[in-house]
Amino acid sequence: MFRSVARSAAGKSLLRRGYATAVPERKVAVLGAAGGIGQPLALLMKLNPLVSQLALYDIANTPGVAADVSHINSRSEVAGYVGEEQLGKALEGCDVVIIPAGVPRKPGMTRDDLFNINAGIVKGLCSAIAKYCPNALVNMISNPVNSTVPIAAEVFKKAGTYDERKLFGVTTLDVVRAKTFYAGKAKVNVADVNVPVVGGHAGITILPLFSQATPKANLPEEDIKALTKRTQDGGTEVVEAKAGKGSATLSMAYAGAIFADACLKGLNGVPDVVECSFVQSTVTELPFFASKVRLGKNGVEEVLGLGPLSEYEKEGLESLKPELKSSIEKGIKFANQN
Ligand SMILES: NC(=O)C1=CN([C@@H]2O[C@H](COP(=O)(O)OP(=O)(O)OC[C@H]3O[C@@H](n4cnc5c(N)ncnc54)[C@H](O)[C@@H]3O)[C@@H](O)[C@H]2O)C=CC1
Ligand SMILES: O=C([O-])CC(=O)C(=O)O
Q: In which residues is substrate bound (predicted)?
């Protein structure tokens, strides 16, 4: 077994010497790789020793990004693909496909305002995934995630390839933000902090569960409310600060790289890999919902429940349901009408 080899002294020494034979081959594609998120995400995936092949796809400018990233002396081989006619080659044999393709917000816009453009982009890319790598784990970053994930599910259902264990809305940036803001307020080491974030990925649908945050800090109710609001508005904070030049890219690339790494670890059989993600779910009455999920060799191994909620979180949960429900339905309707 590769893991026992990798963990043995001989395996470690092999790895240190640059022989990656103990780690399985894994192909990862980034769709939208020349964009604000795509470029730093390509860099971070190139640095990930679990990746053996990195396919960088975009409708423009990927050759330059691929040439640049390919000079880094890490394990994976890098190839750039540009234009729809090369999409199949980019996807063939992929284990994980990360999708940050699509337009970002400008100040004054909601994520739902991106629907008209991004829904079509995501639908096209998912049709190609169904054709060229139907078994890949799909990490959906493109907004509005609350709708793009249901769109992807419908496309895969129509193609007969849908496996609910393999489709993920990437909500890791909400967790990253919640951890950072909590650590600042609670004055604890950010590296030790854990905070689950559930619900969806837009405004009030983002529900951080600070009552379950560790290390425990017993923050007053006003602080919890302020932290919740800041986490929910984290994306808007960046959109406003960038003043028309887009939304979060660097922190999103970091979050996307963490989530893809967790998917790869799960595929490789590493035990107890748990991350929050927006997935098909029975945790609430909504068909998709973000919560902690355990990742394994086939993607989602277990969707974990919410755990005990404070009164404030229970109220937040009830208030987010109508908006999340309508975003999910909007995605399903789009996929079936267009
Ligand atoms: N899930 C999350 O937490 C977050 C999601 N986002 C979302 O990620 C998306 C991308 O954001 P940025 O990278 O900042 O935008 P960007 O505009 O900088 O890059 C998007 C890239 O997608 C490419 N693209 C457009 N159509 C394509 C297609 N059909 N196939 C392949 N590539 C295509 C563009 O050429 C461009 O290079 C946006 O929808 C944004 O809202 C952003 C931050 C956080
Ligand atoms: O706010 C946006 O538009 C981008 C995003 O999803 C985030 O930063 O969380």
A: 105, 111, 143, 177
